# Entry
Amino acid sequence: QVQLVESGGGLVQAGGSLRLSCAASGSIFSINAMGWYRQPPGKQRELVAIIGSGGSGGGPNYADSVKGRFTISKDNAKNTVYLQMNSLKPEDTAVYYCRYIATRSYWGQGTQVTVSS
# Structure
């Protein structure tokens, strides 16, 4: 089992910044991927950004809507993934979920991000 604890959500004005963190604990495999997804009100969950454990093929991938504004990073020693969100827009408002992917996939409980115009 893997447990994911997210933090860092909140309310911010358009143009502002937030940093999300997600710490994984439990049966962690050294080779894994961690990412952030979001679910806007009334819409389906979508990928925001994902990053592997490093090495070839482990580079980050981003949704087109956040490229140049969001940065995902990962501290493998701490099993923690971060999402730095800059230049936030009202359309970034959503519940943000952390995901851990190895032999199985696990989800965090979600953290609300609200961007006011």
